[in-house]
């Protein structure tokens, strides 16, 4: 009987959704994490998706990061983000008390 050799296993993929109000720094934090570059200019995001290979609990994996829109006019898209995300990063501005109370 001939055994079948297992090939390399695909790295598991996890989906991280970055959420928060408009202008709080979601894109700046996301790009800093993905590209090691800090964005100083504000450019409102509708939706951007990034992929990064990283280690989680000493295992290599693929992390898909979804940078979401914070503006109220895109609130209908939030339900989809919340359904498909496996992890969530909530970003808020500590300089604006109304944003986090």
Automatic annotation (TrEMBL):
GO cellular component, one term: membrane
SUPFAM superfamilies: P-loop containing nucleoside triphosphate hydrolases
Biological process, per Gene Ontology: signal transduction
SMART domains: RAS
This protein's record includes keyword RNA-binding: no
Molecular functions (GO terms): GTP binding; GTPase activity
Keywords annotated in UniProt: GTP-binding, Nucleotide-binding
Domain of life: Eukaryota
Protein known as: Uncharacterized protein
Organism, scientific name: Plectus sambesii
């Amino acid at each position: 009987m001939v055994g079948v050799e297992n090939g390399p296993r695909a790295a598991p993929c996890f989906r991280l959704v970055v959420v928060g109000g408009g202008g709080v720094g979601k894109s700046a934090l996301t790009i800093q994490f993905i590209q090691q570059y800090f964005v100083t200019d504000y450019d409102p995001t509708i939706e951007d998706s990034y992929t990064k290979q990283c280690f989680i609990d000493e295992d290599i994996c693929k992390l898909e990061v979804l940078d979401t829109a914070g503006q109220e006019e895109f609130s209908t898209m939030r339900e989809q983000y919340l359904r498909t995300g496996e992890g969530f990063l909530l970003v808020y501005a500590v300089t604006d008390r109304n944003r986090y109370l």
